[in-house]
């Protein structure tokens, strides 16, 4: 396994957590688990089978999370752990909690569901009491309470600690000060399985406030991580816990939404992957694409402090990276002949990147994590990706073919970047950059005419409940506008009610393409320049709006709250190209303070 692949799967864990995981791994492998299926009272033969399945599943992904709760045994070992770390005040409190959990286990085994439920309820009441008496830390309380709550429903809770930290990052041979999640660029990959409960404990060790926004994941509004809109920014030294159900599989990413044009550029991003339960890939790689200010002096001037202080010419971002590495530093991906390879491309940068695929047959299977209907194969074609967007691409690795995937050179990012493959055990057949076919006649893929036609969710809707326009523009002073308005001073929200089917018409009167991102909802693209889509329905959360082109998109207002809707070229959002979709009767569940900078 290459170094970079290790980096991608190796979560940052604090020392005590790593030790704890080892202990827990042994526990899970050796102790018979009364699975959550046993809790619902099915017969013994079935529950044994289910338990075995669960052991297999947990060992596969156990290194990814700080803790996993999928059984009463897991809760018991967590209580012991919090006793050791003194997050539970004393032996007695831990013992009483575990007496109840042990009883739950015994009653579950005997099929006495009523008594079992009673003891689990007592356990939760005890937690409330100990929290009031300050005999348990806030974090330990939250972890155990969540675990108990979801265990009854047969769900697995996966917990991650994400520390926003300063770090040093080497780029073009020089060291840069960066801000990171867990000390790495990109931040720790959060990888879970469909229907898992994700619980992320954010610890802010930076000298500036931060948040985590879960780009594309349809989370409840309070978990969306937008400072001043869904929560107050997490101040230095403070913590915040995000918790949501990962019920929509796909490729997503996370980033700070505080002062995001600055903080995302400085490194505060990572990927979040929700695997399908029946995923069938031999290899599955996440490729996070970004651009950096290559010149160290300029980098230090622009990004060295806690806030941006200088205007920067656009051509300064001239260094392209994949998973934080530049061209020749990028480790080849491990593959074997015949592997079905899935690549998850995520554009977290400032520019649109063009990818070229050649040498074998490829398929684009997902846009922004959402499936494309019966995608056709292609070769030697290019794909335009824009900030905030994701594309999943699939192919079968054939060591006899010269497979080339590259980011094509363009205006400021003048070098092309080649993704290499290394086939283990079959000699040196790693493809070389020199082999890149110099072919300028690469046909671009039109993602709005790709895959097989079928009716979309909104195809037959004749009358929309709400219709709004988003005319993207630019003022003479350089500010960027939606319907002539600069956010936040002049903006008009898009008002909706829960249950509305909403149509937005987007136009672009600027010379630049704008990737418009809607939080909390997926939308379907229903037409371009008045023409309905002829290929697969395209569902996404970020649409690239080309100059002089009109698009209609539609979404169902099914997630109450206040949701940002903005250009994901974050410099444009900062200059005003931003607005909000707001639900009429939504009451803000917090009081915004003065420390929030949304864009
Ligand atoms: Cu824009």
Automatic annotation (TrEMBL):
Residues 72-153 form the FIMAH domain. InterPro entries: Cu-oxidase-like_N, Cu-oxidase_2nd, Cu-oxidase_C, Cu-oxidase_fam, Cu_oxidase_CS, Cu_oxidase_Cu_BS, Cupredoxin, FIMAH_dom. Transmembrane segments: none annotated. GO terms for molecular function: copper ion binding; oxidoreductase activity. Keywords: Copper, Metal-binding, Oxidoreductase. Residues 165-277, 284-393, 476-584 form the Plastocyanin-like domain. The keyword Oxidoreductase applies. SUPFAM superfamilies: Cupredoxins. It comes from Gracilibacillus thailandensis. Gene3D superfamilies: Cupredoxins - blue copper proteins. This is Multicopper oxidase domain-containing protein.
């Amino acid at each position: 396994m290459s170094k970079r692949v290790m980096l991608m799967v190796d979560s940052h864990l604090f020392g005590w957590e790593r030790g704890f995981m080892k202990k827990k791994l042994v526990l899970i492998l050796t102790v018979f688990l009364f699975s959550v299926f046993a809790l619902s009272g099915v017969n013994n033969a079935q529950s044994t089978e289910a338990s075995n399945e669960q052991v297999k599943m947990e060992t596969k992904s156990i290194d990814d999370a700080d803790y996993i709760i999928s059984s009463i045994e897991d809760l018991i070992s967590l209580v012991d752990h919090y006793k050791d770390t003194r997050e539970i005040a004393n032996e007695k409190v831990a013992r009483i909690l575990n007496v109840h959990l042990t009883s739950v286990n015994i009653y579950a085994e005997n099929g006495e569901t009523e008594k079992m439920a009673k003891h689990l309820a007592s356990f939760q009441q005890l937690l409330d009491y100990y929290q009031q008496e300050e005999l348990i830390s806030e974090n330990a309380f939250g972890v155990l309470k969540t675990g108990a709550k979801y265990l009854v429903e047969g769900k697995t809770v996966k917990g991650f600690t994400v520390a926003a930290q300063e770090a040093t990052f080497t780029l073009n041979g020089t060291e840069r000060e960066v801000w990171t999640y867990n000390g790495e660029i990109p931040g720790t990959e959060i990888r879970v399985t469909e229907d898992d409960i994700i619980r992320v404990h954010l610890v802010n060790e930076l000298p500036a406030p931060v948040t985590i926004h879960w780009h594309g994941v349809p989370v409840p509004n309070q978990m969306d991580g937008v400072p001043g809109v869904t929560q107050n920014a997490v101040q230095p030294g403070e913590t915040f816990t995000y918790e949501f159900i990962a019920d929509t599989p796909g490729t997503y990413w996370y980033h700070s939404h505080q002062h995001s044009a600055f903080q995302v550029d400085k490194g505060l991003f990572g990927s979040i992957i929700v695997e399908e339960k029946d995923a069938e890939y031999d290899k599955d790689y996440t490729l996070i694409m970004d651009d950096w200010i290559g010149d160290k002096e300029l980098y230090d001037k622009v990004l060295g402090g806690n806030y941006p202080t200088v205007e920067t010419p656009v051509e300064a971002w001239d260094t392209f990276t994949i998973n934080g590495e530049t061209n020749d530093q990028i480790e080849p991906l491990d593959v074997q002949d015949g592997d079905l390879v899935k690549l998850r491309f995520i554009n977290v940068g400032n520019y649109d990147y063009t990818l070229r695929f050649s040498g074998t047959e490829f398929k684009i299977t997902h846009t922004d994590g959402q499936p494309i209907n019966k995608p056709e194969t292609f070769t030697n074609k290019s794909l335009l990706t824009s900030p905030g967007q994701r594309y999943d691409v699939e192919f079968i690795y054939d060591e006899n073919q010269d497979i080339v995937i590259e980011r094509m050179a363009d205006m400021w990012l003048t070098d092309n970047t080649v993704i290499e493959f290394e086939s283990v055990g079959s000699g040196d057949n790693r493809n070389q950059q020199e082999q890149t076919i110099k072919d300028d006649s690469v046909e671009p893929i039109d993602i709005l005419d790709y895959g097989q036609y079928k009716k979309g969710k909104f195809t037959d809707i004749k009358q929309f409940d709400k219709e709004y326009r988003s005319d993207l523009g630019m003022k003479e002073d350089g500010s960027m506008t939606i319907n002539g308005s600069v956010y936040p001073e002049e903006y008009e929200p898009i008002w909706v009610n829960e249950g509305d089917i909403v149509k937005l018409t987007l136009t672009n009167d600027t010379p630049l393409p704008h990737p418009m991102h809607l939080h909390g909802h997926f939308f379907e693209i229903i037409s371009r320049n008045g023409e309905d889509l002829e290929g697969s329905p395209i569902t996404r959360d970020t649409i690239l709006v080309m100059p002089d082109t009109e698009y209609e998109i539609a979404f169902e207002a099914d997630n109450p709250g206040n949701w940002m809707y903005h250009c994901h070229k974050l410099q444009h959002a900062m200059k005003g190209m931003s607005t909000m979709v707001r639900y009429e009767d939504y009451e803000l569940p917090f009081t915004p303070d003065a420390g929030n900078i949304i864009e």
